[in-house]
Amino acid sequence: MTDRYQDLAPLGWNAWFEEQAKLHCQPDETVARVAAVDRDQLLLINETGAFRAKLSGSYRYTHQVSQEFPGVGDWVCVQKLAQEDFGVVQSLLERKTALRRKAVGRALDYQMIGANVDCVVVVQSCHFDFNSKRLERYLVMVAEGGAEPNILLTKTDLVSRELLATQLAEIRTAGITVPVLTLSNVTREGVEDLKQRLLPGKTYCFVGSSGVGKSTLINELVGRGVLETGNVSGTGEGKHTSVRRELIVLPSGALVIDNPGMREFGVLGTGAGFGSGFGDISERASQCRYRDCTHVSEPGCAVLSALEEGEIAQEHYDNYLKLRKESEFHQMSQVERRKKDRSFGRYVKAVKKDLGRE
Fold it and tell me: From CA 155, how far away is CA 184, in angstroms rounded?
């Protein structure tokens, strides 16, 4: 990296982003990373510290789709004088990875969860939240975005070792092969193991339902008392978690994106992402007689053969078909949206051209 950007390495900067900066940033602009989004303002961080910024008017005018706006973890080009406390964002660098979900209630749009994430940690509680189908859904989206997936089972102190072993076996039976960690914030079993896996300069995103212990865990990683969390109820479910998405730099040098709880995680149009949550099905699919096999009724289908022989669980197979159907639907929706966006763009250009003649 050049001298101009070398001080950004602790924030996740690398040679890949430097190439993007050469394409998008002007000589009078600096680079910063989005730590939080508060309505119309951004909280940015760079080698000098944190500062506020807003999007330039030209950026807002030329970008109409929500996912084109900076989100937590993004790198942006910003104009800011050294003596000023406020900056103006002029452009967004291309995302190396992205974790996103279908926007709630909007079939044709998606919501950014975290950008430029190296590893996504899917968190579930052993006590009340464990759900292998939801794990599969999360893992499909993580893999599609390009980040490395991990699973973290929390609150192991609230279940027996036998039940924990059963849950771990269920994960493997479902064909999920990604690393699985277990942890208890009460007994601290597994805490040090997790800390050792969080490397300096790498970005990690913790996702999961409300009350699974994400914020309590990040309390531990940052330093007790830094984040506010509520008491745990008698059922073992937390009463309060993070209220906003934010990028946190840990004392160890690792970076963590903390998220509000998400029980819904709508699948978008995906392709390669199914290899992570359904590795067993993907492996057998390569053995099917037909390359475009749908694994529903074709002769010579290795997936159906494994299903009949009990090598693939029926519930696991059904969830695969459900998520694939959902994925295909939203892929079609996105194609239709792009067509509409292009048509609208042509309309705007035509109107401007007519106005220019008057």
Answer: 5
